[in-house]
Each structure stands twice: as structure tokens, then as C-alpha cells.
Design brief:
By secondary structure, the chain is α/β, with parallel strands linked by helices. 23% of the residues lie in helices and 29% in strands. It contains 12 helices and 36 strands.
């Protein structure tokens, strides 16, 4: 037992007063005069021992009454596990979980409302002079200070659901960063949350022994949840009138098996596909939603399901751009080979643009996705520089050196691209003996990969020696082990190198069945495809596709269907202008980037699915986990069965005993009165 006001204990000196009085009473004798012995019959026999016993009982009652009164004023208490903080001000940090999972309902109120109520109960356990810090998932700068009770309540009322996800370790470390005015002061730190298992994904850090931590779980049983996890396309390229398929990953984290659950695909506000899915309890499934790209330009889509009580992850937002045609530029010495014109010129998917190298316009590169060097004999330094810029900005280059190519000019370009070098022409006739049939160029070409695949042959080639730092992938090999078709990434673009001239005089590739998928897929994969969605809180740097900042510098990001907008920060990555959105994306949905009122790009943001797993640590599991960790200054409060304020007072400050001592003092005062009345009788 300890005392909050120990100086009151000097009042125990008052015990000497009744002791002195009683000592004097024991020495006084009362004389009784009588004239006749018959009056002795009316006097009760009383021994000396009885007389002393009665006075001793009265003395003890008075001493105990005074003792308990003094002790009550000294505010006795039984200290908590880590002792009592005796400072005039105490510092209290309260984390209120405002993540997406706190939207779930509990007894008619959202878990966030319940958390606010529990935070107020925590306040009731402290005095008006104590200081309070509010912590949420937003990690706002104003939450790094300590406030009085009224200011804290104002901040608490402003807390709203946030898309930010934080682990318990991140929250604790953020709490520790707050500046405390009093040096070496004990801080009581409270965590009010539904305590999802994902919240503990990074484990529990050992807390500072100076502080006390309190975990206040809000629910003891997890809700079931069905949610959309992700989406992707069957084909990375989208063109007009293309039959496309969107794949949707769905997760069933409920206790029931699901059958025929409807899923809708809305494109630009119009329903374009409808499907259903089955999923076992705790399982995952993938649904295919086929549709047709009927219009060119920027497309905004939303995949929707219905599920209660957790609804925030029932919508998934994506966007993509549908092109009229894919621009392909063929650069040749004179006329391009028939093997290009016959495939590309009359296909509505491609914009076929043949150029003679002597009449080449470098400015046309900006409007091209794929450039093919068709049997070019020599590359100028100016062309090499422009091609390197084109690749770095996201374009694709297909290099096909001619038979009498100036290998020095090619090697200068290959050196710029950090790839390697080609060696003098080898006239050996060789078979292509190995093909990477699982490469993206051959996606969908082979239903089954035959063991003895019929492959083309070549009548000569340029041996290639890798000496650069960029990774090279060999797609096709010759029978002597030399590479025939290679691929490497450079900047945001791709470089394909065919190590042999192209045409009937140099082999039979252009008449082989695999030539068509090679050139078609190369063109379709020629540009890096923008993300069809971003995750809030994870993706904070967004590519715009712009290579320079608009002169007006009037870029605005606006949420579709809302008045919410902001002016983004931006910087140049050397290849394009990138937006720095940081935490400005506050709501899931479609965002449009406009310059001077014209929409130039679109982005779709979705809430982080880390909160979609409803698994929690119930009270008993939390209790067992904390016991295993052995951290003595982390205490668990059962908010479902206990009043938080009184429980916290006992756990943190100890059990207050002054009321008990007041009752004991009253008891001994009453006992003294009763004893005095009995003596008189």
C-alpha cells in the first residue's frame, strides 16, 4: 500500500490526544458517601479488570477512528503492476483505430463510434490536469502533441475512417516520437482497436519499460467477409472492337460456402458484363468477365459485388486506354520487305508507317510504339541517339542488321543500350533448335508444346557476345548455341535483336508459321502498359506519360463524380513527368488528370485489401499471446464486461482505498458511541 498525499500521515500524532485523556481517567477515583450499609446493595459489583477493559475498548475505538480518518486524507492505494506516477500532470497517448475495418457495425453503431466512446471512458480515469495525445492511422502532424481534455475531445470528434493501413509496431513507434514536456515522465499508451491479425503482422515490439501499454479490444468474434481482391486482363493490349476478358479474383472469408454470387462489370457507367461465382468457405476463386472494347479512348470500369456488414471492399476500380490502332514504323534502305507490308498494311489493328532511312523524320518517333530497323546496313550517330531516347521513354525497337551491316555502328548503339556487341557475319547454315515457347511473344500460340517442334533455319548470322550490364533474354537459339532472337529492357522500353538478316535469301523465318505471332505480339507488347489500378497508401508516385511539364502548369487531379480535387506535386524522372500524390488520395474511385481543363490521363485507386481479412485476436488469444511474450507493462482490458474507466484506474494507478478507510472510521466512531452508552447504563 502506498499514499498519494503522504504528508497527511503527520496527522497520526493526534492519536496521542485520546491516549493522554485515558491515562488521566485511569488515575482518577470517584468517592461515594453513604450512611447506611443498605445502600451498598444498589451498587453494582465491579472489579478493577472490568473497569480497565471497558476503558481500553473505548480508547482503541478512538485511536482507530482517528487513524482511519488520517489515512483516508493521505489517499492510500494499492499500486498497479508498474507503480504509480505521482506527477501533477500525467501523459496519456490514445490510439483510436480508424482503418477501413472499423466501418463494421456493432450493436447498431460503427466500431469507430464504439472506439470513440471507449476513448472517452479512458479520459474518465484521469484528472483535469493530465495531458492527452490522440493517435490515428492518418499520422497527422497535429496528433504529435499533447492536449488538455477539451482539446482532445475536439480532435476525437474529427476522426473519420481512413484508407491508411498501419501495423501495431508502426503505431507504437509513432507514439514514441511525440515530444513529452516532462523529462522521464511515465506515459500511459492505449490501443483501441478490433485487433485484426494483420495489425500484428510485424509482431509486437518490446515496449519501453518506463511506459504502460493498455490493449482494449472492441470485439471478440470476427465478421465474415467476401471481397474483390484484384483484377487483370487476359491481354495487356486493348484495341477497338477487341474481344477482351477481365479476370477477377474473389475471396470468401466467411463460414459459409457460396454459390451463384452475382458480379457486375460497369464500364463508363453502363453494365457490360454479368457473372456469378462459387467459392468454398475460406476459399478463393477467379471469375472471367468477357466484353468487347466498343469505343476508343480512356475507359473507367467498376467491378461490384454485394456483401454485408463489410462493404468497403465490394467495389474495385480499374481503367485502361483503348487505341484505334498500334503505330508501327518500318525503317528500311528502300522499300520495306513484303513480310512486313503483307501483315501490317491491311490490318485495321495496326497503323503501318514505312520510312526510307534517308528520308527519316525523327519527330515521328514520338507517335510510334514499335520501330523496326529492316536490314539496315549502317546507323548514324544521330539515329542511334534518337533511338536510345525512344526506347528509354517506353518504345520498342526491333533491330535486324543487313548482310553487309557496319557492325561498328550497330555496336555503338548496343553499347549505349548496355547490351554487348555483334561479331563479323558467319555464313554457316544452321537450324533453330530451341525456342522459349512460354515467352510472352508466343502467348496463346501453342495449345501444347510438341516435343519435336518444326523450327526455321538460317543461311547466316551475326554471332553475339554479351558484355553489357543489362539482362538479355534469349528467345530463340541456333544449333551451335548462338542466340538468334534476343530481348532486353532499357529504361521503360524494350530492345529486340535478330542476329540474322531477314528475307528469303537468309532463311525461312518469314515463311514460317511462328513469324506471324512474333511480329503481332511484338507490336501489341511494344508500349509499357499503364497500371489499370493503384493501391491507396502504397502507390504514391504515378506516371503521367508526359515528357515535359505543361507551360501553363495548371495540372489538377479530380475525383470522378465528386467535387474533391487537388493540385499535385510532380517531378521529372528523366523519362516522364511523375505525380507525387502522397496521402492526397482520400477515397477509392476514378481520378482524372487535367491540364488547362483537358483530361490527359486517368488513374483508379482502390483501398488496401490488408484490412479485408476479418480475422481477429479475441480477448483470450490476446491474453495468451501477451503472457507468452512476458512483457509486464502491457495490460489487457476486457471492454465487453468491464467498465474501462474503473478498470484502468485499478490497473494503472492501483486500487484506491480512501473510501474504505472512511467507512472504517465511521464504524469505530459508532462503536465508541455505543460503548459510552452502555457504560452509562
Amino acid at each position: 500500500m502506498e499514499f498519494l498525499h503522504p504528508y497527511w500521515l503527520f496527522g497520526l500524532l493526534a492519536i496521542s490526544i485520546p491516549i493522554i485523556i485515558h491515562l488521566f481517567n485511569f488515575r482518577r477515583y470517584k468517592k461515594l458517601y453513604f450512611t447506611n450499609l443498605k445502600f451498598l446493595k444498589s451498587i453494582k459489583n465491579e472489579t478493577r479488570k472490568q473497569h480497565r477493559l471497558r476503558h481500553l475498548l473505548i480508547l482503541i475505538s478512538r485511536i482507530l477512528a482517528i487513524t482511519f480518518i488520517v489515512l483516508a486524507f493521505a489517499r492510500p492505494y494499492i499500486p498497479g503492476p508498474e507503480g504509480q506516477q505521482n506527477a501533477a500532470e500525467r501523459y496519456v497517448s490514445i490510439y483510436v483505430d480508424n482503418s477501413m475495418s472499423m466501418q463494421a457495425a456493432s450493436n447498431g453503431s460503427s466500431l469507430l463510434d464504439v472506439a470513440r466512446a471507449k476513448a472517452n471512458e479512458v479520459l474518465d480515469a484521469y484528472g483535469s490536469s493530465d495531458r492527452f495525445q490522440l493517435m490515428t492511422n492518418d499520422f497527422l502532424g497535429k496528433h504529435q502533441r499533447y492536449y488538455n481534455r477539451d482539446e482532445f475531445n475536439t480532435l476525437l470528434a474529427e476522426v473519420e475512417i481512413s484508407p491508411a493501413f498501419r501495423s501495431i509496431t508502426e503505431v507504437y513507434e509513432r507514439m514514441q516520437e511525440a515530444e513529452i514536456p516532462a523529462q522521464e515522465a511515465m506515459v500511459h499508451q492505449y490501443f483501441i482497436s478490433d485487433f485484426q491479425k494483420t495489425f500484428f503482422a510485424s509482431g509486437i515490439s518490446e515496449p519501453d519499460t518506463v511506459n504502460m501499454l493498455f490493449y482494449i479490444p472492441l470485439i471478440d468474434e470476427a465478421y465474415g467477409n467476401i471481397y474483390i481482391d484484384s483484377c487483370w486482363f487476359d491481354s495487356p493490349y486493348n484495341h477497338i472492337l477487341q474481344h477482351q476478358s477481365l479476370y477477377v479474383s474473389l475471396v470468401n472469408l466467411s463460414a459459409l460456402d457460396l454459390e451463384k454470387v452475382p458480379v457486375r462489370l460497369m464500364i463508363n457507367g453502363i453494365q457490360r458484363a454479368l457473372g456469378t461465382f462459387d467459392a468454398p468457405a475460406g476459399g478463393k476463386t477467379t471469375l472471367q468477365l468477357p466484353f468487347t472494347n466498343n469505343a476508343a479512348g480512356l475507359q473507367f470500369a467498376e467491378v461490384m459485388i454485394e456483401d454485408y456488414p463489410i462493404t468497403w471492399d465490394d467495389h474495385f476500380y480499374i481503367n485502361w486506354t483503348v487505341k484505334d490502332r498500334i503505330p508501327v514504323q518500318i525503317i528500311s534502305e528502300s522499300d520495306p520487305g513484303y513480310y512486313f507490308s503483307s501483315l501490317l498494311a491491311n490490318d485495321s489493328v495496326f497503323e503501318y508507317k514505312p520510312y526510307e532511312i534517308s528520308k527519316l523524320d525523327y519527330s515521328s518517333f514520338a507517335e510510334t510504339d514499335l520501330i523496326v530497323l529492316d536490314n539496315i546496313s549502317s546507323l548514324s550517330s544521330g539515329l542511334s541517339n534518337e533511338l536510345e531516347k525512344f526506347i528509354s521513354s517506353g518504345g520498342s525497337l526491333f533491330m535486324i542488321p543487313g548482310e553487309d551491316a557496319g557492325i561498328d555502328t550497330y555496336n555503338k548503339l548496343l553499347f549505349k543500350l548496355k547490351l554487348g556487341r555483334i561479331m563479323p557475319y558467319d555464313t554457316s547454315r544452321l537450324m533453330i533448335t530451341e525456342l522459349n515457347a512460354r515467352h510472352e511473344l508466343f502467348f496463346g500460340v501453342f495449345e501444347e508444346i510438341p516435343e519435336n517442334l518444326d523450327l526455321p533455319e538460317v543461311n547466316g548470322h551475326y554471332p553475339f557476345r554479351q558484355s553489357g550490364v543489362n539482362y538479355l533474354e534469349t528467345i530463340m537459339h541456333l544449333q551451335n548455341g548462338d542466340p538468334y532472337l534476343l530481348l532486353s529492357n532499357h529504361g521503360k522500353g524494350k530492345v529486340y535483336l535478330l542476329t540474322a538478316p531477314l528475307g528469303d535469301d537468309y532463311g525461312n523465318l518469314v515463311r514460317h508459321a511462328i513469324w506471324v505471332p512474333i511480329i503481332y505480339r511484338m507490336a501489341m507488347l511494344s508500349r509499357p502498359h499503364d497500371n489499370i489500378y493503384y493501391v491507396m497508401g502504397e502507390d504514391r508516385v504515378i506516371g503521367t506519360g508526359l515528357d515535359m511539364i505543361p507551360a501553363e502548369n495548371q495540372m489538377i487531379v479530380r475525383l470522378s463524380g465528386s467535387e474533391y480535387e487537388f493540385i499535385p506535386a510532380f517531378h521529372s524522372s528523366g523519362e516522364e513527368i511523375e505525380l507525387l500524390v502522397f496521402d492526397r488520395i482520400a477515397h477509392a474511385g476514378h481520378y482524372k488528370l487535367s491540364v488547362s481543363g483537358e483530361t490527359i490521363a486517368g488513374f483508379s485507386f482502390n483501398y488496401n485489401r490488408m484490412e479485408s481479412d476479418p480475422s481477429i485476436y479475441p480477448y483470450e488469444e490476446l491474453k495468451e499471446m501477451l503472457a507468452d511474450l512476458g512483457y509486464g507493462n502491457i495490460l489487457l482490458v476486457d471492454s465487453a464486461t468491464e467498465h474501462v474507466s474503473s478498470t484502468i484506474s485499478e490497473l494503472s494507478q492501483g486500487k484506491d482505498l480512501w473510501k474504505t478507510f472512511i467507512w472504517l472510521a465511521l464504524f469505530f466512531i459508532l462503536l465508541e458511541i455505543l460503548l459510552l452508552r452502555l457504560f452509562r447504563k
